[in-house]
Amino acid sequence: MRLLIVEDDAEAAAYLTKAFREVGHVADHAADGLEGYSMAEGGGYDVLVVDRMLPRLDGLSLIRSLREQKDDTPALILSALAQVDDRVKGLRAGGDDYLPKPYAFSELLARVEVLSRRRGAPASEPTVYRVGELVLDRLAHRVTREGQEIALQPREFRLLEYLMKHAGQVVTRTMLLENVWDYHFDPQTNVIDVHVSRLRSKVDKGFEHAMIHTIRGAGYMVRDSSR
Amino acid sequence: MTAPAEIPTRRRQRFLPTLFRTTAFKLAAAYLVIFAIFAGLVLGYVAWNAQRLLTDQIRSTIDAEIQGLAEQQRLGGIRRLVGIIERRSRAPGASLYLVTTPVGERIAGNVEALPPGTLDRTGESEIEYARSSEGLDTPSRAIVRVFALPAGFRLLVGRDVEERERLGIVIRRAAGWSLALIFILGCFASWFVARRVLKRIDGMSETASGIMEGDLKGRLAVTGTGDELDRLALNLNAMLDRIGELMAGMQQVTDNIAHDLKTPLTRLRNKAEEALRSAKTPDELRAALDGAIEEADNLIRVFNALLMIARLEAGRISDNMGELDLSEIVSGLAELYEPLAEEAGLSLASEVAPGLKVRGNRELIGQALNNLIDNALKYGAPDQGGDGTVIVAARQVGDEVELSIADHGPGIPEADRGRVLDRFVRLDASRSKPGFGLGLSLAAGVVRLHGGQLRLEDNAPGLRVVIALPAAPKPVETQVPSGPAASTETSNPAGLPTL
Questions:
Q1: Of A120, A152, A186, which residue is a domain's last?
Q2: Do A183 and B318 touch (CB under 8 A)?
């Protein structure tokens, strides 16, 4: 994955490029908004990571300008302003995701990977998600594993749906809270973990291999571990 | 240029324009002019009407007399008429009589001189006359009526109008005096009012400058009469109180940051130092680093919460306010927390009436409720002495939506209920629990921003937090499928792109 990091703080930028390269991505760095804009315009990036406050051209304007050029490279906004409206403003400007500073790198990585994957995905969602023997039928609202039906509560169904949609990718607790519950605040407790462990007890119990994996320090991942 | 002589004149010159520029003076002058015009009009109308009435009366008396005299003449001829006229002429009074021959010679009557041609016109007229030939120099005015008798004789009957003129003079004089009096009294009254108002406004200005110079405790004087100036003073005082609160809040935040954030920072530093000194294996180092990150995350949380509270208290209403289905938010949160409660040995029950609507910010309200439910689960747990039931309820009460989160924990003593809403206040009983003492302050801030009230009540035993929010006006049936939306992609009410 090719990433462009637009960040004026040299130290933060160095940390990010290094961290992304370590996990095997190609990361370029632009130190101000204009430079970021011309580099992004050149194209070829899978995801843009844009700081909100930048010299010469601020992050929101950068994204807005790109969108006006019909450039829809997924963009994630980093912002030190953790205001309530901030996320909404960022998304209105054409950003695809928003992460307030300070953030955990694992959170940023998970989100960036989801963004890059989405870009290559077909426009319409498949109606059935399959991970190994685990099958989730979105239309029939049915989940089966090795042919056995698994009865899920509506919210559990949506939780599994989201995890399976991003099968093979790390999904963080915040991402789950935002996308399954549509809550954009800090619950300060491990609410999500309890939901995941309930789901896990229904999906994985009695089977040889686990489907729902806990990724330490990051979140969860659905993956067929039998192979 | 002799300075000593200059000063008083300059002062006067400065004082008068100041007076003329005051609103009180302008208002008083305008009222005075309008009032004087009205008074003049009213007095003029009265005078005119009185004159007219008198004239009418005189005319009808003359008419009646002429009719009577004409009747006498018809019955007894001109001789009898002359007799009556002579008798009446001798009586004192304002009545005028004259009978003349066809050639205009006087036969009887008390009028000596008339303007020429008066007798040629029958009917009514207002003329100057004299009772005696000497009086011609100072003629009097009269209303007369000339009546043609048979054979060319003429009868004149009239009334002197001196009485009417006198009345006119009296009225005019009275009007003049009243206008003068109105003007003088008006001037005094407006001067008095202007001075009073000016004095109070000057007092207000003075207090205001005092406050600007740093006396933040200063308040404007309120007289208690409830007039405009009092209302203004009350409002300004309320504004000053609000500013004072904000300043105090800022001060408190600074103090809190200095004090309460230093503790975890010190802990973080100690952990790092300890690890550097004594950790031998990579695993030990890793554990120490994990601990440090956790400590840093906690700090960030406290920091975010503090900033959020400060922003809420500054009353900056977010532009991301819209109509919210509170029922959906509350049941959603109850559902989110239900497994966690169960795991901790509690039972979380929700009693939520459907379709409760408020105007607000979904994230703020969500965060506030989240904090309260989190608290209830923390303090309502069976190990706190309660039975572990937590009830989250929402219902409509009048034009308000009332939310309540009730636990059976130790509750909050009445004396402490006001205090716990402040930042960083943790009662001794809760010291052992995790937390920073910000959850309730944040919830209270959110509720205040939404124009609602947060009350702490005794749940006997335990605590019940009640939030009353103004209900959104009932919309005209625009039914959007509410409740937990069916799929991840459509669950975003703002229609914004999410992952």
A1: A120
A2: no
pTM beyond 0.90: no
Task: Report how many domains make up chain A.
Answer: 2
B36 pLDDT above the threshold of 50: yes
Give the domain extent around A150: 128-222
Q: Is A101 among the domain residues?
A: yes
A183–chain B Cβ distance below 8 A for any pair: yes
**Are the Cβ atoms of B336 and A195 closer than 8 angstroms?**
yes
The full set of domain ranges for chain B reads 228-311, 322-475
| Tokens coding A196 | 């995941």
**Same domain assignment for residues A73 and A153:** no
Q: Is residue A135 located within the same domain as residue A86?
A: no
On whether any CB of chain A is under 8 Å from the CB of B340, the answer is: yes
- At CA B74, angle to CA B68 and CA B77, rounded to 5? 110
- Tell me: do A132 and A86 sit in the same domain: no
pLDDT in tens, B270-283: 888 888 888 788 88
Q: What is the spatial distance between Cα B380 and Cα A206, in angstroms, rounded to a whole number?
A: 35
* Shortest distance, CA A49 to any CA of chain B (angstroms): 15
Average pLDDT of the segment spanning B468-485: 60
Cross-chain residue pair B340–A181, CB shorter than 8 Å = no
Lowest-confidence range among B57-71, B150-164, B465-479?
B465-479
Question: CA of A136, closest CA in chain B: separation in Å?
Answer: 13
Is A162 in the B-facing interface, judged by CB distances under 8 Å?
yes
Instruction: Determine how many CB atoms are found less than 10 A away from the CB of residue B417.
Output: 15
Give yes or no for A151 touching B (CB within 8 A): no
Q: What is the pLDDT of residues A188-226, one digit of tens each?
A: 678 888 899 989 888 888 888 888 999 887 889 998 877
Q: How wide is the angle at C-alpha B452 spanned by C-alphas B451 and B454, nearest 5°? A: 145
Could you read off the pLDDT of B119-145 as tens digits, one per residue?
A: 777 778 888 877 765 555 677 788 888
Q: What gap in Å lies between CA A159 and CA A153, rounded to an integer?
A: 10
Residues A149, A189, single domain; the answer is: yes
A103 shares a domain with A15: yes
Asked if the structure places residue A227 within a domain, the reply is no
Residue numbers in B near A162 (CB within 8 A): 488
Longest CA pairwise span in chain A (Å) = 59
Give A-chain residues touching B492 at CB under 8 angstroms.
182
CATH code for the structural domain at B322-475: 3.30.565.10
Contact B311 A85 (CB under 8 A): no
A97 and A30 assigned to the same domain: yes
Same domain, A195 and A116: no
In order of B78, B83, B143, B146, the CA distances from B153 in angstroms are 8, 15, 20, 10
State pLDDT tens for residues B170-212: 888 888 888 888 888 877 887 787 777 778 888 888 888 888 8
d(CA B334, CA B348): 7
Question: For position A200, which CATH number holds?
Answer: 1.10.10.10
Which of A120, A148, A164 terminates a domain? The answer is A120
Residue B377 has pLDDT above 80, yes or no: yes
In a domain, A111, yes or no: yes
Q: Are residues A135 and A112 in the same domain?
A: no
The C-alpha of A154 sits at a distance from chain B's nearest C-alpha, in angstroms, of 8
Rounded-to-integer distance, Cα B248 and Cα B240, Å: 12
Rounded-to-integer distance, Cα B365 and Cα A163, Å: 27
**What residues in B contact A113, CB-CB < 8 Å?**
none
What was the ipTM of the complex prediction? 0.81
